[in-house]
């Protein structure tokens, strides 16, 4: 029988910890973890194009993950259309009951989501307080928000969600509400007033970042990031580039901030590791006022839709990190 040394010219190393800079194809035994590992190459981050939505739009909401996403509402012009994504293609499903744009979304899959707030067709204000629940087939109207809002984001699931901040008017409220599956309850406010905020995470451990306090002034864009622990918001390290209404997704320790207006549409992408934001691979298409799979991690993101440039689009991109270390098992 041919041995590993005969194939590779060296024995498998036994190491107490993983090598700091392994070469592609290197195999070693980690004696601390008691497992066999190998390097598949350096970590590489990149966005790739996927199939576009059936209806191009901007100012939409999203839910789910890279392989299991939902897009709903938006402006193309203002629509209630809903589309489900299976990791490859988008399929039209039943519409929202109330047509609206600039709405908020929450949900972990394309079979369970929540749509709340937004704007009626042809209006810039006031925001709506309506809430609808998605069961995988139909949208059902449920209890309203206490404070109508738009131009902001939500986080969580269809049974436990947060509505964070609001747009104009008034610009940049700090108000936050918690959904328990039946009713909305006001909870502790953000530390900084803003609209166009991006979010990630769940109602027990969330993240809110960037946004703006004046829609007409780029100088009002903020880099501020706040952590939610289920009770209070705490300011932590800022994003690198302030912008509004981009794609926010992930968890409190693994989030992605893609695109957004700064003030023009941006392709910038930043990754959050629980402590700091780091710039990573740019989007293939600069965009703002897009939707995202809110539960997609910083290793597997998805964004869809785009503000008019020259018209609203359904362009979809997926973010992936390849390479790194694999662990062999006996199963």
The number of distinct β-strands equals: 28
Q: At the first level of CATH, what is the class of the largest domain?
A: Mainly Beta
Shape: globular
- Tally of individual domains: 2
**In CATH terms, what is the architecture of the largest domain?**
6 Propeller
Indicate the structural class: mainly beta
End-to-end span in angstroms?
Answer: 22 Å
Poorly predicted parts: none
- Helix count equals 1
- CATH 4th-level superfamily of the largest domain: Kelch-type beta propeller
**Helix-strand pattern:** HEEEEEEEEEEEEEEEEEEEEEEEEEEEE
Strand content: 35-45%
Largest sheet data? 4 strands, mixed
- The CATH topology annotation of the largest domain reads as Neuraminidase
Strand order of the largest sheet: 1-2-3-28
Please tell me the overall pLDDT: 89
Task: State Rg.
Answer: 21 Å
Helicity, as a percent range: under 10%
Characterise the protein shown here.
This protein is mainly beta. It has 2 domains: 4-39, no CATH class; 45-322, Kelch-type beta propeller (Neuraminidase, 6 Propeller), CATH 2.120.10.80. It contains 1 helix and 28 strands. It has one helix spanning 4-8; strands spanning 13-15, 27-30, 35-39, 44-50, 61-65, 68-72, 82-85, 90-93, 104-109, 112-116, 131-134, 139-142, 153-156, 161-164, 176-179, 184-187, 198-202, 205-209, 225-228, 233-236, 247-250, 255-258, 269-272, 277-279, 291-292, 302-306, 313-322, 325-328. The protein has a 4-stranded mixed beta sheet, with no helix packed on it. Strands 4-27-26-25 form a 4-stranded antiparallel beta sheet, with no helix packed on it. A 4-stranded antiparallel beta sheet has the order 5-6-7-8, with no helix packed on it. β19 and β20 form a beta hairpin. The longest helix is centred in the first third of the chain and has 5 residues, at 4-8. It is globular, with a radius of gyration of 21 Å. The two termini are 22 Å apart.
